[in-house]
Amino acid sequence: MKPFALVIAAVVALPAVARAQPGMTGPVDDEEEKSPGIALGLSLAGTAAGYGALIAAGHTDSEGLAIVGLTGIVVGPSLGQIYAGETGRAVGHSLLRLGAGSVMVYGAMVTIFDCWDEEGSGSCDNSAGPALMIGGAVLGIGSSIYSIVDSANAAERHNEKLRQRRFVLTPAPLVGPDHSTGYGVQLGASF
Q1: What residue segments make up the domains of the chain, in order of their start?
Q2: Rounded to whole angstroms, what are the CA distances from 181 to 7, 8, 15, 185?
Q3: What is the C-alpha separation between 130 and 43, in angstroms, rounded?
Q4: CA 85/CA 94 separation, integer angstroms
Q5: Which of 23, 132, 157, 189 would you label with 119, given CA atoms 20 to 30 Å apart?
Q6: pLDDT in tens, 123-167
Q7: DSSP 24
Q8: What is the per-residue pLDDT across 68-127, written as a single tens digit (0 to 9) for each?
Q9: By the 8 A CB rule, do 89 and 79 touch?
Q10: Residue 52 and residue 57: Cα distance in Å, rounded?
Q11: What are the residue ranges of helices labelled H in the chain?
């Protein structure tokens, strides 16, 4: 076969080959888009399961259920972020909720020791315990709400990153050395 015929065959065949390989226009690292609805559902379900297990533990006096419940309350709101690939953000907020819970428990202990005397009554006028309990609760609940609301946004951020990292293979006109025109293939990429 003559070299000119090979060039013509390649020019005609390449656009067809490119159309036969849709993976060339997809994400480079084979990641798939994440559903914001699934991310939100995971966060809501994980949080609800944590509270449900904690309530069940209160009715059954099960230490295992209590541990599962507390774990669900700490990690559950971040499940959507984990699903979306934002593990660092999920761990950070889980640690924030764990710290807020610790502040609440410490505030409860301070309240018990400061506010009640041996007869079971007392005054909490100068105790920092109630303020610590309320502060820990507000911080923990705020972090939970933020993580749940942010879970759908985390999936959208993941999907936007995927859209920005694509290779695109398209047919393109070419100008030959003798100023003739033909068709070839153009590779475009964005990162």
Answers
A1: 1-29+165-191, 33-163
A2: 13, 12, 16, 13
A3: 29
A4: 15
A5: 132
A6: 666 778 888 999 999 999 999 999 999 999 999 999 888 877 666
A7: G
A8: 999 999 999 999 999 999 999 999 999 999 999 999 999 988 888 877 766 655 666 677
A9: no
A10: 8
A11: 3-19, 36-60, 63-75, 79-83, 87-115, 129-164
